[in-house]
Specification:
The chain has one domain (26-246): Gcn5-related N-acetyltransferase (GNAT) (Aminopeptidase, 3-Layer(aba) Sandwich), CATH 3.40.630. Helices cover 24% and strands 27% of the residues. It is built from 5 helices and 8 strands; from the N terminus they run ββααβββαβαββα. The protein has helices at 38-49, 67-75, 140-153, 174-182, 231-246; strands spanning 26-27, 31-35, 85-91, 108-118, 123-131, 164-170, 186-198, 219-230. Helix 1 (38-49) crosses helix 2 and helix 3 (140-153) packs antiparallel against helix 5 (231-246). The radius of gyration is 18 Å and the shape is globular. It starts with 25 loop residues before the first strand and ends with a helix.
Length: 249
């Protein structure tokens, strides 16, 4: 197949080989997720995201100045532990039989991952989710999230059989919250002042407010929406997710 000829094999050192669950490529009719390999994928991600600093308006990290900065901030940061894994998102619909079979900026659609994964507590969290602008408002994000939900919540041997998948977002990031709710995630809480952000992220903060004498005056704070989709939700919501993945308009 076209996809089998793509230069995306995991034999060249995916950074996260110590992830606490087996690494697996995940695939639907239109999207494929492969474990992120910095040497293959980091430059493609930077090519697609460098002109769009707004991708990081609601995050504690980014934008990235170059590949080294990206690897240092994200790969060696929150994605660097054995409880996290990062995937490259490939849009299969943008690969034609007549075109080159190489992974390129024309079909590299973004990154998505699991963090805070706990085999002991049978839970994980979907983060980060960065769909590059040319692929936004298409099938890509829904399929990428759906693939992770299937892998996490379906019973073995097809899935991990986890009990809980979390989704956390800046309270002001209504697009992220809405995307999760459309796939069946339920809002459980708003955690106030949950994260410290750089002062440059004031747009995503509690109006930039800090009390007088705060020991970190060079920062702002954010409230965080916390949502979850659990195994018992999945029994009823799984069909909805599959329908959303198959939707053609």
């Amino acid at each position: 197949s076209i996809m089998s000829r793509l230069e995306i094999t995991t034999s060249t050192a995916a950074y996260n080989v110590n992830f606490c669950f087996p690494l697996r490529e995940l695939e639907s009719d239109r999207v494929k997720l492969v474990p992120f390999i910095p040497d293959l994928h980091a430059d493609l991600y930077l090519q697609g995201s460098a002109a769009h600093p707004e991708l990081y308006d609601f995050t504690s990290f980014g934008p990235f100045s170059d590949v080294s900065d990206f690897v240092q901030q994200l790969i060696h940061g929150p994605m660097g532990s054995n409880t996290a894994v990062l995937y490259a998102i490939i849009d299969k619909t943008r690969i034609s039989p007549s075109s080159s079979s190489k992974l390129t900026s024309a079909n590299f659609a973004g990154i998505i991952g699991f963090i805070n994964t706990s085999p002991v507590h049978s839970s994980t969290e979907i983060s980060p989710v960065f769909t590059l602008p040319p692929f936004q408002r298409t099938h890509v994000t829904t399929n990428a999230i759906g693939l992770l939900l299937q892998y996490a919540l379906d019973l073995p041997p097809h899935g991990l059989g986890l009990r809980r998948v979390q989704w956390k977002a800046n309270r002001l990031n209504t697009k992220s919250i809405s995307a999760a709710q459309k796939l069946g995630f339920k809002l459980e809480a708003i955690s106030r002042w949950a994260r410290v952000l750089p002062a440059s992220k004031a747009i995503a903060s509690n109006d930039g407010r800090l009390r007088e004498g705060d020991p970190r005056p060079d920062t702002v704070g954010m409230d965080r929406a916390e949502l979850a989709l659990c195994w018992d939700d999945w029994e009823s919501e799984g069909a909805r997710v599959l329908q959303a993945m198959d939707r053609r308009s």
